[in-house]
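Chapter review: from sequence to fold.
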Amino acid sequence: MSTPFIAKLRRSDLKRCAELEQVLFPGDDPWSLESFAAELDRGHHYLGAYDEAEQLIGYAGLSLAGRPPEVDAEVHTIGVDPAHQGRGVGRALLLRLLARADEHRATTFLEVRTDNDPAIELYRKNGFEIVGLRKRYYQPSGADAHTMRRPAADPTAEGGGAS
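The token string follows.
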């Protein structure tokens, strides 16, 4: 498979997002089409990953809060079709979300299941560290979540930060 094409998430793909949620998060509270639509309506930054046939194979969302110099970003979701996992789709989506956070020099937060080792490793490799634990965060399964944080990009660092 070639590198996925990443673009702004299309409203026409929200049904597919909700279908993937059912597959990816069956033991918890998967997002509905309406949940995704509400995120777009709020103006949050949502991206889709598309294959060669322009079919949605992954999605990701980020919110920004605050005003410079105190801006925080939160990764709301990253989901990748199981048939395309392990091929860099999630990483490509994450990097695009982090680029957006870096434009705003935002510290970025996220929650991840404590048993999701591949995701935790991906986040660590991209500058996140575990800063907290949320007991029974995911419902109805009751799974725990790590809170992870990535510091804001240093605009004075070589090649880093927003210009």
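Two observations follow directly from the output. DSSP finds four helices and seven strands in the chain. Residues 159-163 have pLDDT under 50 and may be disordered.
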